Amino acid sequence: MSRIPLVSTEQANAEQQALYAAIQAELGVVPNFLKVFAHSPDALRAFLGLYGIAKHGSLAPATRERIALAIAQQNSCEYCLSAHTALGKKAGLSHEEIGANRAGSSLDTQAAVAVRLARSLMENHGEVTTAELLEARAAGFSDADIVEIITHVGLNLLTNMIGKASRIEIDFPKVSLN
Fold this sequence. Notes:
Blueprint: H1 14-27, H2 32-37, H3 41-54, H4 61-74, H5 78-90, H6 95-102, H7 109-123, H8 130-138, H9 143-166
Helix pairs in contact: 3-9, 4-5, 4-6, 4-7, 4-9, 7-8, 7-9
């Protein structure tokens, strides 16, 4: 049971219901982590706004999922690992690729650089080396791409915190951290 209760559709006030309707229209479902966010409609709107902007960036959806998988595994967030395994499969990631992402790499050479940079950002609290940034540029990532990698790390850290602090019931096919 979630330590922070979900705001059910039945309990939702008009503002929360409007947000749920927009999420339902976009995703086809309102995931449990967003039902925790809904306790603060302002926080939910802020997350959805940043998520909406970030998903339209230059990083490929598969690379965004690779980063999310790496960060979820690194932060031991079973909810996010389960969610992004499902989303990663939907984005075309193979079982082997998902395993590589969880281990902090990728079968794709360029994506491996993005995943390593994302994990380093987390591990070093943003204090990455000049060599890591040069490696990202050498792999073909622009400064805009690097900023987007950083943004996705931040987004995933936020959802990992929501998942872990609230111990949300997993509403995706469950994936173990081991």
